[in-house]
């Protein structure tokens, strides 16, 4: 048998082994950067930034002071509150509590409402009682606000048993 070889044929060679991939150079173990601080240094406190606008403080209301004819004093400062006496059924006592004065029975639980009137720059009083209120000897109409002035006198009830001098400080 005759073998026919082609003139253009490439002789087969045995396969060559593939060389292993190159090994990377050895890496040093981790070291922190030279400029990294190894001991903790506390930072100075941060100063707060001052706001560009600081609103003005709310105006302070004057103190309403009632001096009872017995000499006992009651002071209050606020936008609105009640003058009266405590009862066991009330969960919130009045702002000016007259429960312990002589003749307290003349005083209603919610005898009067006092409030600050910004327009008049004054405390106002409204009669909410059964027995009435007298301002400088004149009876007040129930439900109508009346201006309180320094030196006024208040009387609760018509028998002149519960009297106060009014001071606004």
Task: Describe it.
The chain has 169 residues and is mainly β. The protein has a domain of 105 residues: Sandwich (Tumour Suppressor Smad4), CATH 2.60.200. The protein is 0% helix and 28% strand. It contains no helices and eleven strands. The strands form two sheets. A six-stranded antiparallel beta sheet has the order 2-1-11-10-7-8, with no helix packed on it. A hairpin with a 4-residue loop joins strand 5 and strand 6. It starts with 63 loop residues before the first strand and ends with a strand. InterPro entries: Cell_Proc_Reg/RNA_Proc, FHA_dom, SMAD_FHA_dom_sf. This is Phosphopeptide-binding protein.
Write the layout of secondary structure elements.
Blueprint (H helix, E strand, L loop, with lengths): L63 E5 L4 E4 L3 E5 L11 E2 L14 E6 L4 E6 L5 E3 L2 E2 L5 E3 L5 E4 L5 E7 L1
Parallel strand pairs: 3-4
Antiparallel strand pairs: 1-2, 1-11, 3-5, 5-6, 6-9, 7-8, 7-10, 10-11
InterPro entries: Cell_Proc_Reg/RNA_Proc, FHA_dom, SMAD_FHA_dom_sf
Pfam families: FHA
Protein name: Phosphopeptide-binding protein
